[in-house]
Design goal:
CATH topology of the largest domain: Pdz3 Domain
Shape: globular
Mean pLDDT: 83
Strand content: 35-45%
Order of helices and strands: HEHEEHEEEEEEEEEEHEEEHEHEEEEHEE
CATH superfamily of the largest domain: PDZ domain
Pfam families: PDZ_2, Trypsin_2
Number of domains: 3
Organism: Deinococcus terrestris
Structural class: alpha+beta
CATH architecture of the largest domain: Roll
GO molecular function: serine-type endopeptidase activity
Keywords: Hydrolase, Protease
InterPro entries: Chloro_Bact_Ser_Proteases, PDZ, PDZ_sf, Peptidase_S1_PA, Peptidase_S1C
Radius of gyration: 26 Å
Low-confidence stretches: 4-38
Helix content: 10-25%
Strand order of the largest sheet: 5-4-1-2-3-7-6
Distance between the termini: 29 Å
Length: about 425
Amino acid sequence: MKNRLPAVLLVLVGLGLGATLLRDQVPVSGAQPPAAEESAPAAEAGARLQNERNTMDIVRRYEPGLVYINTAQEVVQDFGWLFGTQTQVQQGVGSGFFVNDSGDILTNYHVIAGEGARGTADRITVRVMNGEEAVPAEVIGTAPQYDLALIRAPGLARDLIRPIPLGDSDALAVGQKAVAMGAPFGLEFSVTEGIVSSNDRQIPIGFSGTGTGQGITQRAIQTDAAINPGNSGGPLLDSSGRVIGINTQIATGGSQQSAGVGFAIPVNAAKALLPRLQQAGGGEVRAPRLGITAGLIVQVPGQAIPVGLSALTEEGRQQLGLPGRGLVVGQVEPGSPAARAGLRGGEREQEFPGGAVLLGGDVIVAAEGEPVDAIEDLQAALLDENEGDTVTLRVWRGGQERDLNVTLDASAFE
């Protein structure tokens, strides 16, 4: 999370612990305790010490690759006829880390984002552990839908660039060690430790378009390593010191502080995206699209939203002759990857209380072997795909299921 507080007041409360030794009440004996009682605490202490040595080694070797990010954004606010308009500077802090010897710094998009749809912040500076001053940074590429961004500080001394090796998030096991680095509440170069609580948690991450609106549901790593505002964009490392994720969100339970449930973007998603970010020329990298619209729309207060078939009652699905779940294909854009693969859109509209559905076309029930019941499910299946990749869709057509292979060309990324 990006910390926009101008200052953080930390109140440290000390607990004084005292003890009184009552000599007369302490039995004295020359007998030796049993060997089992002696060896168990010794083994436990040894295990703790081994884990501590591992954590300290990770910090010593890779914390110099951590980057502290500060942003500034000029915002004009209208205070009415009494005070008029005033320009204020909003400050933000976050984290990032070096991914190569060229000095590319990976972080969250929301760390460097401007207000609203203004793209990126007016000023971005970075500071490394052994650097005395903050250095201006420039944006290499952004991917709002993934909540990722790549920045670089051309004026940074090359001997201060310390890349952290990237690991393999697909090989994660629940329960393994996780070390989070960052700047919680602006406290630079902080380290916390925990475990991987889940390696396949589906949550909304990122922003649509130029950074506004809802994110795309993606697979995320859940960890209990403490993550707080200011940790965003920092690395989550395994016991070998390799990056397994990019810290991005927390579940707060109503507060703005960690409740022991933090989330990180899997590093493999970032690795797949890095070449496109490096070639973006300061622009935006978008998630691939097939060229279809959802065919089932329901009305909610103030807007119409696309939904999956599971939103309908079983009786409603039966009356419409549709399967129990899936994404109804509404329209197929001519010349799109979906059109070239032979995907079929709806032919006739059927209205019902609270919505409408286009019937007669395909229903996507799975993508790359994963169930699909909403547009978010389809987007999640496409997130790691690149130009030239082929995506296998299972579609329901006329009461039967079949597979269609969709090849993603350049138009899928426009």
